[in-house]
Amino acid sequence: MTTRSDQSKLDPMSAFTQRLFAAIYDPALKASERGVFKAHREYVAGRAHGDVLEIGAGTGANLAYYPEDIRLTVADPNPFMLRRLTAKAVRLGRTINSSIVPATEMPFDNESFDVVVATLVLCSVEDQKEVIDEVTRMLRPGGEFRFMEHVRANGRLQGVFQDIATPIWRTCF
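Request: output the structure for the sequence above.
Response:
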């Protein structure tokens, strides 16, 4: 099942950049996924249980790590990412519910999920507090927010690169 937000709000450039981002995401992160991200995804997604929501689910990088017995709902504002995620779910034999929405406008009831998962999401939203408020609203009492994020690099060159790239990344993707 897929719930769609109003995609007509996308201007042509947004649709172009969303399609481009979906196309390059997996190849761009391939080395990181085999290296450092694998262990973190196993820890974050692999320990999810019950009713699970993944926000900013992208192309489905966490799908292979989720336990088989969970009930998984995924959300992402990029319909092209979710199209790739859905194809991956079919290949893996996973049943999912999906929704094309940003992390700040979740259509789910209060206390709907045992676990909310987010990996590499909070770096690309304008207001992290707003997203955390939504996560808190949707979690059942005793629920878990399981996430993986990166932080600004310490090195002068890497840090400056991130400072320049972050606004561009946020605008385009």
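Strands lie at 2-4, 51-55, 71-75, 96-100, 113-119, 139-148.
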